[in-house]
Amino acid sequence: MTEEHDSPGGEVHLRADGPETWPEMPQIPGLRMKELWAREGGLSIALLSFEAGAGIPRRHRHASNQFMYCVSGRYNYVSSGLELTPGDFYWNPLGNEHGPTEAVEPSILFEIYDGPHYFEDKPYG
Asked: Which of 41, 68, 70, 97 is 20 to 30 A from 116, comparing alpha carbons?
């Protein structure tokens, strides 16, 4: 269960327990996402959990800047050979084509978008 606690100063504190707080992403097998914060217009902060072998299946681009920090595991950008390992920071500028990707081992990434995620309605379909 996820609990949200608002403070008098406007801060938000999320407390998460249980697997339902990391729902599976059916369009990408092996990916679970825990949304930490989101606003209209696509701004978001989330934790992504990839099983080994899971990843984004094709090249794509985003309609905003994408920022990622590797918390654990090894996450590979197949076409460029870039591999994120714990402590690595990755900035993918708006409109830059990248992917496909694959988790070499179970991986957790902290991800931030500063606007809409995709130009297309269905980026993987």
From this structure: 70
Tokens 């988790």 identify what position?
103
pLDDT tens-digit series, residues 42-56: 899 999 999 999 999
Residue keyed to tokens 């990707």:
101
Task: Tell me how far CA of residue 38 lies from CA of 2, 70, 79, 97, 106, in angstroms.
Answer: 15, 20, 30, 24, 25
Q: Residue 31 CB: number of other CB atoms within 10 A? A: 19
User: Kind and range of the H or E element at 82?
Assistant: strand 82-84
Rounded to two decimals, what is the model's pTM?
0.82
CB 98 within 8 Å of CB 25: no
d(CA 104, CA 52): 5
